[in-house]
Amino acid sequence: MKEINMKYGQGEMKALIEEKNLLEVIESNVLRQDRTEAEIISEALLNPIDSKRLKDIVHEDERVCIVISDITRSWQKPHEFLYKIIEELNLGGVKDENIIFLCAQGTHRKQTKEEHEILLGEELSKRFEVYDHDCFDEENLVYLGDTSYGTPVKVNKIAVEADHVVITGAIVYHFLVGWSGGKKSILPGISSFKTISANHSLSLNEGLGSGTRDRVCSGNIIENPVHEDMMQAAAMLKPSFMFNVVMGPDGDIAGAVAGNYIAAHEAGRKLVDSIDGVNIKKKADIVIASAGGYPKDINLYQSIKTLINAKEAVVDGGTIIVLSECSEGIGEVKDIKDMILNFDNMLDREKDLREHYTISKFVGYFFCETGEKYKLILVSEIDPVLLKNTKVIVTKTLEEALETAYKDKAENLTISIMPHGATTLPKLV
């Protein structure tokens, strides 16, 4: 019997699996790091990819807009690299008064002054103010044109009127666009709500009843229209420079890329793959995946990353068991609740999603769709009544979940375990 500890809320659950059934434990690759975070950041800025150094791109009296991620992405440790970017700009002759920080809120809420201080760090927050992007503020949005997908691109006026736009953030797997970072600072980061909705709706196939696109998934940009549409939007704004970090399993900065926003992002994607992309030779009948404990499993909304990654390791029609405590239920966002609670069939859900697309609705839809295509079992404290209109099964324990998985099936089914399901992406080779 193999015993594997998996995080659940503030504690753990033990997975007890017969050795003969265990196909593999899917973990991120071992990362050996001999550089400090400061050294990683400096090395990237001193050696930009397909670009001059930032100090050699800018000139005195030019206005520079630095686009940063919001407080929900503070794990990127922006306070560790933003002051290095300011140093580069100052070396290039740009004065503080000509540097503007614009926060890529997307559709997120405005932030507090204290949250701005967390993002910039103590020193920079005394020197600079942060402007929060508002996707509904039409007076401060500028229309740049339509993409080939018909997305009307409107972005924040501050960025459009700057001489240079510097985009920052982190590259991780993303369930719609393949990888985050890079162009996502622009769309959805500083775009209008209409632009964001039009872009994200490309995650659905054409025609009511056809559901989600298979190519719109983590770790893929090939024939991914959400990615391609974002790239076209970014090209309209033409950012001058990009700086993105890559995080290690311990939550520290494991790598960084800088320079041309296309070439540098490509290098960053390869780095993410080397850490969190795990090759598997075979898909399992059952996949047990932990969201990674609190706060990654604080609600159902946050568990979407785990579900999407686990889906890559299971056979068609197999069983997915997600360990997610969901101490705060489905989540505070109204749209995901509406999608899960207000419909009892997938066609009506899809119709509503197409007519009133939001990322939160998509998350709710994806959970419901996965429950239709697989046996989806949620080990959770969530009230089962909240999921009564879906085919998602809720259990309190992993033992009960496995009993449900084995029901009406032979007990010699293969099982794969994902202790860090939110960040580990299985790749079939």
UniProtKB/TrEMBL annotation:
One MF annotation (Gene Ontology) recorded for this entry: lactate racemase activity
Residues annotated as domain Lactate racemase C-terminal: 281-423
Record-linked InterPro entries: LarA-like, LarA-like_C, LarA-like_N, LarA_C, Ni_dep_LarA
Highest taxon above the source species: Bacteria
Boundaries of every LarA-like N-terminal domain copy: 8-205
Pfam family, one: LarA_C
Protein name in the entry: Uncharacterized protein
Organism: Clostridium saccharoperbutylacetonicum N1-4(HMT)
